[in-house]
Amino acid sequence: xxxxxxxxxxxxxxxxxxxxxxxxxxxxxxxxxxxxxxxxxxxxxxxxxxxxxxxxxxxxxxxxxxxxxxxxxxxxxxxxxxxxxxxxxxxxxxxxxxxxxxxxxxxxxxxxxxxxxxxxxxxxxxxxxxxxxxxxxxxxxxxxxxxxxxxxxxxxxxxxxxxxxxxxxxxxxxxxxxxxxxxxxxxxxxxxxxxxxxxxxxxxxxxxxxxxxxxxxxxxxxxxxxxxxxxxxxxxxxxxxxxxxxxxxxxxxxxxxxxxxxxxxxxxxxxxxxxxxxxxxxxxxxxxxxxxxxxxxxxxxxxxxxxxxxxxxxxxxxxxxxxxxxxxxxxxxxxxxx
DNA sequence: TTACGGCTCGC
DNA sequence: GCGAGC
DNA sequence: GTAA
Length: 338
Description:
338 residues, alpha/beta, DNA polymerase, domain 1, Beta Polymerase, domain 2, 3 domains, 8% strand, flat, disordered N terminus, DNA-binding
């Protein structure tokens, strides 16, 4: 059992959080009772209002239950007692506020999102993320990835290294980079990468599904320079050939409404094969994005066992009807009882 | 100097 | 066992 | 790359 917090945004309000029972002698919750309330739960003292807008009902129920279990109290209306507001996203929250005409309600304080004052820096770091990943230096790539949100949160334009010294994820090299960017407007390191044919080629090849840093390097060393060159390369794996063949298609994002149509189709076909099967799209679609890079699909069945053997039949059906065309990878996970 | 995620699949 | 994707 |  786990608690997935991510889809909800937590908007802290101005109301003081009442701490209660923190240091009391209250016993730990008993193990045999699932819905018991933990007086020392992490949400103790929170008065929560849930914006139901855009949240699936079942999910809402689970959330209420968990919040209460972990010490929170649920408020039915957005009163002054409320210390925290949960909403699917800012939009849902604003709609709710509008609906309740809460102009006079003091709070919630909306998440502060400064305009990208330091876009000059984060844009360059963003490019380095991709380059280092293409080169196989995931660790370094990840370091830039972590530095970006730290810089983005700053409410001012960085004008000297002192202003960012000591920030988490900003070490000596980052400071040097920032210094160079604020004085010259560019980063010679990046300029170098971007003009380097080897780096450029490896980055390009790495965009093909199934080609990673090692393979990209080998292909480069073989003399390949363009995607066209790769078409004549017979060492490519099946996945890589497909990745190449559908290079543009795979990169094309899926508009949300299309993802929605596909989800519906997937559900219908699933129901046809196995009544009662639950099929939902997750990932960026579930998070409400306007477009999706791919479609993540979760398949379950309430009886906990008839999922066995479902996937292969399902995939076959989807291929027969030409919804699916190719395979990049196979898995047999769903064939097993576990 | 060391850790930075762990697992499955293709080959 | 390596490379790759998630 | 950063941080321990």
